Every structure is written in C-alpha cells, then in structure tokens.
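in:
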C-alpha cells in the first residue's frame, strides 16, 4: 500500500508540473493530467481548451488521445489516469470508454471554487462509474492542497484547510 501512495504522489507531482507548464506557457487553465501503465509514463497533458479553441481539450482528454496514439489502441486497460482536479462528467466518461483502470485526482469539488464545476454537478465520477464500470478504481485527495492552490487567485486568502507547507 505504501508503494501505491508513493507512486500516486510521484505521478500527481508530474501532473502538477504539467498544469503549471500549460498555465505559464499559454495562459491555460491550470489542470494537468498524466497516464501511467506499470510505473511507466504513457502520456501527459495540460488543459488546451483556450489554446485550441476546443471545448473538449481538457487535460484528461488530451492525455487519453495521446496515450491511444502512443499505444496504437483505444483500450487503455491497466492504466491509471492522474488529474490535478476531479474529472468532470465528460472526462470521466472518456476514461470509462477508454477502459482506464484507475483514476486518481488531487483537488475535489469541495476544495476549489464553484466555477470549476457545473451548477447542478452530481458527484459525476461516482455516478458514471456505478452506472457503467464497477471495476473502475477511484482515489481522490492526493496532494489535494497543492492541487487546490492552482485554482486560487493570486493574493487570495487561502483557508487553513487548503494550505500546505512549501
């Protein structure tokens, strides 16, 4: 179990780097995603919605597309998707259709501003998983404070529960 936790932290750090990279280089919304299989990086991405003028170019979707291209398939069995933010309904559904085995996310809905989620947002990922794939493993809150800090305006007062040691 400790290996899984250490690996999750390692790969979430990589997703954080991608989120920061996209934000710094292109002004993209700071969301990063990484796809890993058997401890090996398969694909990584940051949010490219505004960069590509494509509402579907979320970090998770871009990473899934890259993983499929790299592996030459649409079924990404045995992979883990790491995302700095709890995946939206579209990204959750894409992970299910891509047959990703596990989703790990950092900041959840309650950790960030409401603007990052739909007004009538259900716990979409749980709802979709239960309806379509009971074999999909979910883990949330990995480096949650670090991930949530990406979605706070500079100079904003960060609640103590979301602060982290630097």
């Amino acid at each position: 179990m400790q290996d899984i936790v250490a690996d999750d932290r390692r790969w979430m750090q990589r997703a954080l780097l991608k989120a920061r990279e996209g934000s710094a280089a292109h002004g993209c919304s700071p969301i990063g995603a990484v796809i890993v299989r058997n401890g090996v990086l398969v694909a990584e991405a940051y949010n490219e919605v505004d960069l590509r003028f494509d509402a579907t170019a979320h970090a998770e979707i871009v990473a899934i597309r890259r993983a499929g291209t790299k592996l030459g398939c649409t079924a990404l069995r045995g992979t883990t998707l790491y995302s700095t933010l709890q995946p939206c309904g579209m990204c959750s559904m894409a992970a299910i259709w891509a047959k990703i085995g596990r989703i790990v996310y950092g900041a959840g809905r309650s950790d960030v501003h409401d603007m990052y989620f739909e007004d009538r947002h259900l716990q979409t990922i749980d709802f979709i998983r239960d309806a379509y794939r009971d074999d999909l493993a979910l883990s949330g809150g990995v480096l949650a404070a670090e991930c949530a800090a990406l979605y706070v305006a500079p100079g904003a007062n960060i609640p103590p529960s979301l602060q982290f040691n630097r």
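note: The beta strands are 32-37, 40-46, 79-85, 102-107, 137-140.
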